[in-house]
Write a structure and sequence with these properties.
9 helices; 14 strands; single chain; alpha+beta
Length: 368
């Protein structure tokens, strides 16, 4: 994995250089018959990719955890994608037809009589040629001129404008602009809400084992009790805690544990609180092949302490997220049935087709 990360890191350098050179070579005046992304994409992409590439290099060629390099690399690649879009995403057109080059640099040639439909979203427009389509981004330089020219050529050939395409499987019944983006947003909210609940459930119920804890050979020399925690100090000055004990917890073994002589095998997790001294949270203790404190017992204490967090996350995050999605879809399918204030909770007015009709219907209801 280290070699893959390093290889990708080196591969981004010529891409960043290509983005800078493409900006410098681009003519200052718009090119007639050309559609391309603005220079801002390449400039922003080069800056972002370069900024995150530096810590990627440092982490990839040091002893830092590999996931740190991966995170920085992903951000760097996100910036690089803007450079690729600037270099590759372009359309050239003339009286006979147009050539579209996609994100991956693949070129396709079409004629105007092949155009079968157009779909206009909030931030992009799609031209359809049967099952194939090309996208014209709202930021694309010369994009609107090309769309207008395509309309003109289609009207000359077919004596009618390009047919508008509606998504037959639109969950919002065609009432919402960029319904695919909206649905993606709703799905993302659901994933975050449910994902947080799953994460919290795993945090509470995922058992500790020798494989996911720190194994140490320890000699305990003293102990104290603080609230519900038993605090043990080792001969080398390390602090260990048995946390969240209750009335069912049998603590009789703790005094004999701290004799300053016996070597115990501890399984723990290092805790680094913000306003306290670092310590090891004990998950199990073993002596002579037998458990003095079992994983099952500490799991019971931890579950008892943390399970209310699952309820809290479910009520505060997951349930509202699910309700937002359910009612958002319901409102989006028929926005005229609801007040403008209710519609605005889920959608910005500019995303609602015939938002004026929503206000008119609401005004009529108030008069009645």
């Amino acid at each position: 994995m280290d070699y893959i990360i390093r290889g990708l890191t080196f591969a981004l350098i010529p891409l960043i250089v290509s983005g800078v050179l493409a900006v410098l070579r681009r003519p200052k005046k718009p090119e007639k018959g050309k559609v391309f992304m603005p220079k801002f994409f390449a400039i922003l992409g080069s800056i972002c990719s370069g900024i995150f590439l530096i810590p990627t290099f440092i982490c990839a060629f040091s002893d830092e955890p590999i996931w740190t390099a991966i995170v920085f690399l992903l951000f760097s690649m996100l910036g690089a994608s803007l450079i690729v879009a600037y270099i590759n995403c372009r359309i050239s057109y003339d009286e006979d037809g147009f050539t579209a080059k996609n994100f991956f640099g693949i070129k396709r040639r079409f004629t105007y009589d092949q155009i079968t439909g157009i779909k206009e979203n909030m931030h992009e427009t799609y031209l359809y040629m049967g099952k194939k389509r090309i996208m014209i981004d709202e930021f694309a330089v010369g994009g609107w001129e090309f769309i207008a020219f395509a309309h003109q050529k289609h009207r000359e050939l077919h004596k009618k404008p390009i047919p508008k395409i509606q998504n037959k499987k639109d969950i919002f019944n065609g009432n919402i602009e960029s319904s695919g983006e909206m649905l993606f947003g709703f799905i993302l909210i659901g994933i975050l809400g449910i994902g947080l609940l799953i994460f919290m459930t795993c945090f509470v119920f995922l058992p500790s084992t020798p494989n996911n804890t720190i194994e140490q050979q320890t000699v305990f020399q003293s102990y104290t009790k603080q609230d519900r925690d038993w605090i043990l100090e080792s001969a080398d000055g390390q602090i260990y805690r048995i946390k969240f004990t209750d009335s069912e917890f049998d603590a009789d073994f703790i005094p004999s544990l701290c004799d300053g002589k016996t070597v115990y095998t501890t399984y723990s997790k290092k805790i680094e609180p913000d306003h306290e001294e670092n310590y090891y949270g004990i998950e199990a203790i073993m002596a002579d092949g037998d458990y003095v404190l079992t994983f099952e017992e500490t799991a019971r204490l931890n579950t008892q302490e943390y399970w209310p967090l699952i309820i809290f996350v479910g009520l505060v995050f997951t349930l509202p997220a699910c309700l937002f999605i359910i009612f958002g879809i319901k409102v989006g399918r028929n926005p005229t049935k609801y007040s403008p204030k209710t519609v605005k909770i889920f959608f910005k007015p500019q995303y609602v087709k015939n938002y004026s009709e929503v206000k008119r219907q609401y005004a009529l209801k108030k008069r009645k």
